[in-house]
């Protein structure tokens, strides 16, 4: 999927935008190579200072400096969220990233998301007020149910303005939420993952353990 969209965007427009909404330790990051004018964005789900062993994950991606837009982990979470939204605003105005004609929010060509055992995506957790945020592009959380308590996140209007989304889920601990998301479509109180609805294609990638309840 990554390769197909890379080629399609480059052939069609000469560039493309990718966004990640979390950590994927086992991911093949070479697929995020940004040649031929492509642009990658990095929205780090958990707020980890560089001095604490976390920080910007752009070092994982073997691409040219200046083509990855990571959060500024030298700032507090609220300041980093504002700084990141300012960066996106500039890139939208510069036509580096397109805008959804339907929503007016930034439109990534492809967003890569994970899912937590509770069905959360990015830093959008079940029952948390940020799930209903519909104005800001990027916001921060200081009371995350999953440690560490602080992070920044894209909100659903930006996530769902994406042209395409890949949901990558692995591990037996997530099988229950996978089942709930894919088999309980009439849930009156949907999990955050059930609220993921891009303008184009949504593809789930599950390992055997994550799919064990299907």
TrEMBL record:
Coiled coil: none annotated. Transmembrane segments: none annotated. GO terms for molecular function: 6-phosphogluconolactonase activity. InterPro entries: 6-phosphogluconolactonase_DevB, 6PGL, Glc/Gal-6P_isomerase, NagB/RpiA_transferase-like. It holds the Pfam family Glucosamine_iso. It comes from the Eukaryota. Pathway: Carbohydrate degradation; pentose phosphate pathway. GO terms for biological process: carbohydrate metabolic process; pentose-phosphate shunt. Residues 60-204 form the Glucosamine/galactosamine-6-phosphate isomerase domain. Belongs to the glucosamine/galactosamine-6-phosphate isomerase family. 6-phosphogluconolactonase subfamily. This is 6-phosphogluconolactonase 3.
